[in-house]
Amino acid sequence: MKGNSWALKLSAGFGFIFLYAPIIALIVYSFNESKLVTVWGGWSIKWYVELFQNEQIMNAAWVSLKIAFISASLAAVLGTLAGFVLSRMGKFTGKTIMAGWVTAPLVMPEVITGLSLLLLFVAMESMFGWPAGRGTTTIVIAHTTFCLAYVAVVVQSRLASMDETLEEAAMDLGAKPVSLFFLVTLPLIAPAILSGWLLSFTLSLDDLVIASFVSGPGNSTLPMVIFSKVRLGVTPEINALATLMILAVSIAVIAAIVIMRRQNRFQGP
Amino acid sequence: MMTTTASSDSTRLSVIQRLRQIRLGRWCVILIPMLWLAAFFFIPFLVVFKISLAEAMIAVPPYSPLIEWDPSNAYATLKVTFGNYLFLFESRFYLDAYLSSLRIAAVSTFFTLLIGFPIAYLIARSGPTQRTILLALVILPFWTSFLLRVYAWMALLKKNGLVNEALMAIGLIDQPLQILQTDFAVYLGIVYTYLPFMILPLYTTLEKMDMSLIEAAQDLGAKPWRAFCLVTLPLAKPGIIAGCLLVFIPAVGEFVIPALLGGSDTLMIGRVLWDEFFLNRDWPLASAVAIIMLIVLVGPIMFMRNGNKEAM
């Protein structure tokens, strides 16, 4: 095949510039001395210093990190089970319904998910007295539910691309289902679970809409604080925060790619 | 597939016992994720539906109970109102909001496809090393905070932002344009934030495509453009459909983008629902808005489920 045509390269190049220009601008302006975010006043790290002195942002970041860690871990367990059930358990009653419940949260508009979970929590509280009020617990349940879907899809596609001969061999050699899962299947899908966990962690850390619905007073997550600040205009501290988060994500993505490459297969998101 | 091979010395009884254990364990494994999803994904919709049939009132929680229990004569009355739905259909405002959300989502999806396709195509045709790097470049924004990526455009688009400064510097305009808080900014925001959701399924399909088919078409005299329309596009169809649905469905209910980039007149149903809930505290009406949105989107969601077996 001849080389790619210049038209293709040009339009793809334009696409990549479109993807990166805003991010690069954000990073550059985070080092801007001037408070007027878009007027250049020289290089400075003062917004980073202010960021770490901002107690509201730091508290919210801590709340968000805790929630993201717990939700991602719960979602990794439940999502792996769901993905495993859908691709390795053959047919069972309700499989189609479950498959629908696993894919629908991926595209469900967040306002619907958020509202429906809040109304559920309110109804549950008046019926069983649990969960008492809204706060960390309700956010964790909500995040686990939508992250579970992502983990399930990643695990499912990994299992689908993996041939079953290893598992069959282990079964022929007399492995019981439980040890088969823990000794053979789990190590094989571990990279997929890890990338599902990381994806869940970042999704939870990023969620504004669902958390706004299901959080209680005094439980502002980081995106909620960012949103309330940003709504009034561009804030230099948020630029600094964004840069740090982009840096963290870049490291995680590169690490994930290295792990994936070791598996010698590239799975989608 | 759960098949068990009994070793030769095991008795018939132990095989049956083992199978029974497996069946029990199997159902436990199936039921854990199933019950979680039922409780926190499916039942919530029923609750929303129930509350959409109630009336708003000043109480905790702020809606009327569906069943009223009169203890004096042990009489229960079912109180159901379709008033919220009637209100939605009669008011021009909500209809406009739905239509404008669908329009904004559809137009943005089209432009996302237009920008995403060349990227996906280039990646699919690159060598292995270049492919990994380019894919990483697409995945990185996908993992970066959605909220912060929307925010990044605020700084670019505002009156004295980079875009206006650049346009004035090259002399295209001499007055800063109002770009932020317009519908255009909303289109731009959706295309930008959802672009990776388009590129990744497109890439997955294009990667599997047999490039020799295009060569064959060209050898037989097809112009590159004709070969693209007659060979590449039909083969990429599953990826195009999957990508478009992954962008279109969530974009219809988008809240953050119209809230941060749109003007006060940018009408999107996700924002209407948010305001109805948080500002007017009319939970039943917000629920009715959600139920109608769900009904509108159920078709595309089902379609996606059937389609993604081949595309993903």
TrEMBL record, chain A:
<comment type="similarity">
    <text>Belongs to the binding-protein-dependent transport system permease family. CysTW subfamily.</text>
</comment>
<feature type="transmembrane region" description="Helical">
    <location>
        <begin position="98"/>
        <end position="124"/>
    </location>
</feature>
<dbReference type="InterPro" id="IPR000515">
    <property type="entry name" value="MetI-like"/>
</dbReference>
<keyword id="KW-0472">Membrane</keyword>
<keyword id="KW-1133">Transmembrane helix</keyword>
<dbReference type="InterPro" id="IPR035906">
    <property type="entry name" value="MetI-like_sf"/>
</dbReference>
<feature type="transmembrane region" description="Helical">
    <location>
        <begin position="238"/>
        <end position="260"/>
    </location>
</feature>
<feature type="transmembrane region" description="Helical">
    <location>
        <begin position="12"/>
        <end position="31"/>
    </location>
</feature>
<keyword id="KW-0812">Transmembrane</keyword>
<dbReference type="Pfam" id="PF00528">
    <property type="entry name" value="BPD_transp_1"/>
</dbReference>
<keyword id="KW-1003">Cell membrane</keyword>
<dbReference type="InterPro" id="IPR051789">
    <property type="entry name" value="Bact_Polyamine_Transport"/>
</dbReference>
<keyword id="KW-0813">Transport</keyword>
<protein>
    <submittedName>
        <fullName>ABC transporter permease subunit</fullName>
    </submittedName>
</protein>
<feature type="domain" description="ABC transmembrane type-1">
    <location>
        <begin position="61"/>
        <end position="259"/>
    </location>
</feature>
<feature type="transmembrane region" description="Helical">
    <location>
        <begin position="67"/>
        <end position="86"/>
    </location>
</feature>
<feature type="transmembrane region" description="Helical">
    <location>
        <begin position="136"/>
        <end position="157"/>
    </location>
</feature>
<feature type="transmembrane region" description="Helical">
    <location>
        <begin position="178"/>
        <end position="199"/>
    </location>
</feature>
UniProtKB/TrEMBL annotation, chain B:
<feature type="transmembrane region" description="Helical">
    <location>
        <begin position="102"/>
        <end position="124"/>
    </location>
</feature>
<dbReference type="InterPro" id="IPR035906">
    <property type="entry name" value="MetI-like_sf"/>
</dbReference>
<keyword id="KW-1133">Transmembrane helix</keyword>
<feature type="transmembrane region" description="Helical">
    <location>
        <begin position="184"/>
        <end position="203"/>
    </location>
</feature>
<feature type="transmembrane region" description="Helical">
    <location>
        <begin position="133"/>
        <end position="154"/>
    </location>
</feature>
<keyword id="KW-1003">Cell membrane</keyword>
<dbReference type="Pfam" id="PF00528">
    <property type="entry name" value="BPD_transp_1"/>
</dbReference>
<keyword id="KW-0813">Transport</keyword>
<comment type="similarity">
    <text>Belongs to the binding-protein-dependent transport system permease family. CysTW subfamily.</text>
</comment>
<keyword id="KW-0812">Transmembrane</keyword>
<dbReference type="InterPro" id="IPR000515">
    <property type="entry name" value="MetI-like"/>
</dbReference>
<feature type="transmembrane region" description="Helical">
    <location>
        <begin position="283"/>
        <end position="303"/>
    </location>
</feature>
<feature type="transmembrane region" description="Helical">
    <location>
        <begin position="27"/>
        <end position="49"/>
    </location>
</feature>
<keyword id="KW-0472">Membrane</keyword>
<feature type="domain" description="ABC transmembrane type-1">
    <location>
        <begin position="98"/>
        <end position="304"/>
    </location>
</feature>
<protein>
    <submittedName>
        <fullName>ABC transporter permease subunit</fullName>
    </submittedName>
</protein>
